[in-house]
Amino acid sequence: xxxxxxxxxxxxxxRIHETQDAAQRLAGEAAGARAAxxxxxxxxxxWASSRDREARAGELQALVxxxxxxxxxxxxxxxxxxxxxxxxxLLLVRALIDWLxxxxxxxxxxxxxxxxxxxxxxxDIPIV
Length: 128
Hints:
By secondary structure, the protein is an all-alpha fold. It has helices spanning 8-38, 50-70, 76-115.
């Protein structure tokens, strides 16, 4: 007789929930960074360090690897959860693209003002 605690679907459910949590956390961080950028706040020291970028890339690679390994193996009851994870990842990517496009537009607008003789764009830099 098999032990109910060794159910492979429990491990799959756990990994899907972890993936959902990671996607929601990344989306929240992207929204927070976008709001901070729009309000003109200065990012904290060390923001977007190479270690931070590598950690985010690792999380996205883990998401993709999980989705690839689950393709075709997912029971019907988990297909909706997997679809929700994919939707959240796509929403995250969309939010990141929107944020980057807005930053590029702001940068282009600032460059246009400087070229038109509006003077330099001055920003206070906090000293920690």
